[in-house]
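Data deposition worksheet. Section B asks for the primary sequence of the deposited chain exactly as it was used as input, without tags or linkers unless they were present during the calculation. Section C holds the resulting structure in token form. Section D is free text for depositor observations; keep each observation to a single sentence. Incomplete worksheets are returned to the depositor.
Section A, Depositor: J.P.
Section B:
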Amino acid sequence: MGQPSTVIVGGGIAGLATAWGLARAGAGPVTVLEREASLGFWSSGRNAGILRSAIPATATRQLALRSEARYHDLPLELVRHAPGPIFDAVGMVLCEGAPGLPAPLWWEDFEALGAVEAWSPAQLQTRVPYYQPEGTRAWWMPRAGRIQVSNLMTALERACLELGVQFRLGTRVQGLMHDDVGHITGVRLEDRSEQAADRVVLAPGAFVARFAEDLGVAFPARTTRRHLFYALPNGPWSPKDPVVWDDAAGFYFLGTENGELLLSLCDGDDADPEHLLADPLLARLAERRVQESLAALGPFDWKRRLVGIRTVSEDDVPVLGAHPGHPNLYWVAALGGHGITLSLALAELACDLIEGRSLPHRLQAALAFDSPERDFQTQRDYRPL
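Section C:
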């Protein structure tokens, strides 16, 4: 018998990373099915590309720290295939809380790694003089930074092709195929054809509900949208300045490769991925936010906006591993806006789970579809809009 075949549903960062992980491990033929005409069209192509591992949820933070290490020591095949830099270690200033409050949930891990430095208000004003934060504690994280998403996606795609991964673009999956005893045998396509496989990996981004309904279950996460705004400031600022993320305000901004400032209000209202619309109110709120906290860089020349989409579990932990009762059906989903950060760890861990290798017990249990913690809302320092 040959090696098992794998079909991956979804050509975003989750599907691409999983395909690369399986292919580089020699795990058998891999085919990626993507509904759009290009890879990474939805969540992966509409995000800020921030490498942030200071995440309150323990399991997600563990994945992020593992992935962060890979970004600082990129696999040579990704560097070789990338059309430009993948990671820019500009660092991140994280503002949150107030003096006297307990340390953030991520603090112990970062202190142990020597990956965080507490900044006084004077230090913050020296390094980021143009920002007036709401969070009155500031942390400097030199290992964080900016990921060039298009370069990462291109590198992963080229590396997959070199390893023999097959891509079928413009291919919509209608549902799952079952045999007489209920085992998953592949997927049914919208054109009524079928794609048989020994293993099916569901990495459909925001389009998870259809597959959960096919299995007769509710997916343990919800689909939300996030607006991203791009502007040119007129004050003293450099695109090489660090990422600034104010958890107390629910606001972040960073420079882009073409010299714009990318800003977000961390909005996360429920959204229908089939009818993704921009909210004009968010544009006015963004303008108000920069007038209040980035006045030194104004007036801003507003250029464009994108509406991103993500699937978020209440405990902010991805769904990764086999579906209960279906040992040849796997999820790599609910990345919750952390997908680009987690991608290089997902390439390894998803491969391990699909190939039948166990992760540390607590981590594997936390990532499971039926984790009992899925109804727990992670502590946050701000109330999302």
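Section D:
The first strand starts at residue 6 and ends at 9.
Residues 339-354 form the longest helix (16 residues).
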